[in-house]
Amino acid sequence: SAKDLGRARFEVFDRALGARAAARLQLEQDLREGIGAGQLRLHYQPEVRLADRVVVGVEALVRWEHPTLGLLAPDRFLPLAEETQLIRPLGDWVTAEAIRQAAAWTGPQPPTMWVNLSPYQLGDKDLTARIADQLADAGLAPGRIGFELVESALLDETDGSHDTIHALHELGVGLALDDFGTGYSSLTYLTRFPIDILKIDRSFVSELDHDENNRESYAIVNAVVGLARALQLSVVGEGIETETQAQALHALGCQTGQGFLLGRPAPAAPSRERTVVSAVNAPTGRLPNDGFA
Ligand code: C2E
Ligand code: MG
Ligand code: MG
Ligand code: MG
């Protein structure tokens, strides 16, 4: 009967839901153990000066080497970490490891290390103190590192993120606004927070390719660059995949670029840390292969 069919459907639905909840719980337990067991990795993606393609910065991007599922991208486990309390140990590991790696990149002009912070991390009132300790332990000057925030982190001022952002600035680290143009933040936030860099979201950059329909994207990138200049911020173009996009951004006054064209995220090569630095500082046109690719 229809009633039996309905019940059967409900049971299937219920079982599927149960299985999903169980899988989620398993992943949470795996992550809890994995953080302690050294399964997190950082991959590093270069940020290059578009004028001469010299590497000026590096963004640290977390991955998880899951024992059975393989290397997982952040979208597979960051939301889970944020919903549980795991974002704190995960974030602490990321900042410590990025700081350790940045300290290992010595040389006359080592790249700035950029680390992503989620809004959940900014709500932690002890975050800045722990980062200050990590910097001191590694002997790294605060100016060698910066943090990437998303616009939504600037919206909620009741959760302590406002204080954290100002404390980080006081510490002397750089601050960048990630995925700029995709959020809901009012432009007045740019004057109320000590932001140094705007990272133009990939969605605008990818549109710069098409010759006919790109007027709007040109206009948007042009406006962002103009806004940044007026506020004395610098601009990074994200997600550059073609030479056309790189050249269009440069022509529009965007100083720095990042994307698969210029370098993919990759593990650092520990035994070649010195090679990385000399490659970074080599006058290029050419990209450093060692450590980044
Ligand atoms: P994001 O900070 O905007 O990082 C850029 C993302 O775009 C990275 O993905 C990168 O691999 C990818 N990407 C870079 N260039 C290109 C390109 O030319 N084309 C395309 N299609 N993609 C490109 P990933 O590594 O999967 O990271 C995704 C997001 O996860 C990051 O976006 C960031 O919001 C977050 N995330 C990554 N690592 C961390 C971390 O350690 N802590 C926190 N809180 N968030 C992190
Ligand atoms: Mg980022
Ligand atoms: Mg981004
Ligand atoms: Mg993004």
From TrEMBL:
Residues 24-279 form the EAL domain. The chain holds residues 537 to 829 of 836 of the full protein. The lineage of its organism: Bacteria, Bacillati, Actinomycetota, Actinomycetes, Micrococcales. It comes from the Bacteria. This is EAL domain-containing protein. It comes from Pengzhenrongella sicca.
